[in-house]
Amino acid sequence: MAVEIKVPTVGESISEVTLAKWIKADGEWVDRDEVIAELESEKATFEINAEQAGVIKQLAKEGDTLAIGSLVASIDTDAPAPVVEKKEETKPEKKEAVATAQVPSKPATKDIKATPVAAAIISENKLDTSTIIPTGNGKIKKQDVLEAMNRPGRKPGIELFNRNDRAEKMSNLRKTVSRRLVEAKNSTAMLTTFNEVDMSAIMEIRKKSKDAFKEKHGVNLGFMSFFTKACCYALQKFPAVNAYIDGDQILYHDYCDISIAVSAPKGLVVPVIRNAESLSMAEIEQKVLELATKAKENKLTIEEMTGGTFTITNGGIFGSMLSTPIINIPQSAILGMHNIVERPMAINGQVVIRPVMYVALSYDHRIIDGRESVGFLVAVKQMLENPSLLLMGKDPVASLLEI
Fold this sequence. Notes:
Layout: E1 2-6, E2 16-22, E3 29-30, E4 35-40, E5 45-49, E6 54-58, E7 65-67, E8 71-76, H1 116-125, H2 142-150, H3 172-187, E9 190-198, H4 200-217, H5 223-237, E10 244-246, E11 249-251, E12 258-260, E13 262-264, E14 267-269, E15 272-273, H6 281-296, H7 302-305, E16 310-314, E17 333-337, E18 340-347, E19 350-364, H8 370-385, H9 396-401
Parallel strand pairs: 12-16, 16-17
Antiparallel strand pairs: 1-8, 2-4, 2-7, 3-6, 4-5, 6-8, 9-19, 10-11, 12-15, 13-14, 17-19, 18-19
């Protein structure tokens, strides 16, 4: 009996997918629930499994665009299962140890067509003659050897410069990212405001507590948990930054679903940390690690990338000093983190060197005013420079005195 394998429903708004890669070859035996192929939608990559055991017959090719419900493959369940032969273990024969003198090996030069001087240099430096381009009518000359030594690693016949063009079909994910970026640029009144953060206090905390944190919670103490925590408090203080326009209404959120931009093998993805305002530092770091790992393995689900009320992107891991991140629509704002560089700062009339990070907030001016955008960024800066504020989003002493 042949069992049909069809493209499953992967989301309400998704009508077609692309067959990204076959995991199992045509005519190969597959076990039940074994992964046979990877499908790619406009939002994520997901796997398709064998519903029964048998021999697979491919009915689509890699790169094909398939509608939901289309046939991908069939499985012949009547085919005989492959017989696995058990190999008898054989004991290795004992060999008598023979003491031999270890003679350092030298590359053979008798088959090398080279001048005596060139052959001597090749032998002395143990050079691979396949990397040397002969210019003396097939014979290697002294100058050929010297040029090869000056350019190690270059293979003969490889052009250093070329004008070749190579066309590749855009994936559904890349098409969606491109469309959404252009839509965000054209449909929002996007503006960016900047500030700088003295990272001394946070770096000191990480230096003192990273080992104990790792031992206690099983994850590293990174910067993302500090920024996420600070943003959650600032979003509750400035709710417009956590809202977005829905038709002729403004939809405010009493929760913080933080999207984190992650560079995946097939493009940029933004998985979501749900209710980040209710999570501890360790829970945030655990969620960041989980989502980043899934992104790198192309195992994020549609649900894990759907929604989000605010986005954080970290260009600093790639060495970015400053940027103007693009809003992740329909959200109204995105925070850009950058690399940390030691810079001179004026503190109490003295010039001191501090680790500084530039931060950028891109926002939709239709819903967020300058006061709110600047106030949000200042609040984030203050909490990061004074980590004790992250306990409750404000000065513990002021909270105690109710002022």
